[in-house]
Amino acid sequence: MSISFQKSFYVFVILLTLASLIAISVTDVHLKNEVTNGIIDFELAKTPERARQIMDSWGHTGRLYAAFSLGIDYLFLVFYTLFFVLSTYKISRRNHRFFQNIAFFLTLVFVSAGVFDAVENYYLFQVLTHPDDTASNILAAYYFSSAKFILLGLGVLMLLAGWLTKRFYRQ
């Protein structure tokens, strides 16, 4: 692959990631009210009572927005995972050997976060479509969501450390 194509593809992935993030953010405006600050509160609801409280505050229309947001999130998780994997590759090239050695692990961290996000979305769809049977689904969504956020936080910190290392390390 030529360097020009790689750069163009990377920029394309960044634009798709940002476009899907903007779409989620615009949709999330309709999910904020006096009970909830949006879809992330629903992801981290943990209990059936909290999930029901959030869904009741949304009403029918809000639940449709939530379902739409989760649908967009399936695209977003593909794009952000690809963005982080490509960023890991770019930063690991001609970097300190330590970062080159952990680049594969870091890629697994980002891919795992994307998979956890997909599974979390599945459980949240179950909660939205079967509100009378939320206990195990909302708890599973909570744990997958929490793991996703932890992995993304860890991954971004490691990626930032790799970027700083590359900036200041000369081979």
Blueprint of the fold:
Layout: H1 3-28, H2 39-43, H3 48-92, H4 97-129, H5 135-168
Helix pairs in contact: 1-3, 3-4, 3-5, 4-5
Question: How does this model look, in words?
Answer:
With 171 residues, the chain is mainly alpha-helical. It has one domain (3-168). The protein has helices at residues 3-28, 39-43, 48-92, 97-129, 135-168. The longest helix is centred in the middle third of the chain and has 45 residues, at 48-92. The chain is elongated and about 55 Å long. The two termini are 24 Å apart. The mean pLDDT is 93.
Poorly predicted sequence stretches spanning 5 or more consecutive residues:
none
Strand runs, count: 0
Mean pLDDT, rounded to whole units? Answer: 93
Main beta sheet: none
Total domain count:
1
**Helix content bin:** over 70%
Element order, helices and strands?
HHHHH
**Alpha carbon gap, first and last residue:** 24 Å
SS strand fraction = under 5%
Helix count, DSSP H or I runs of 4 or more residues: 5
Summarize the structure.
The protein is mainly α and 171 residues long. Helix content is 84%, strand content 0%.
Defining traits:
84% helix; 171 residues; 5 helices; mainly alpha; single chain
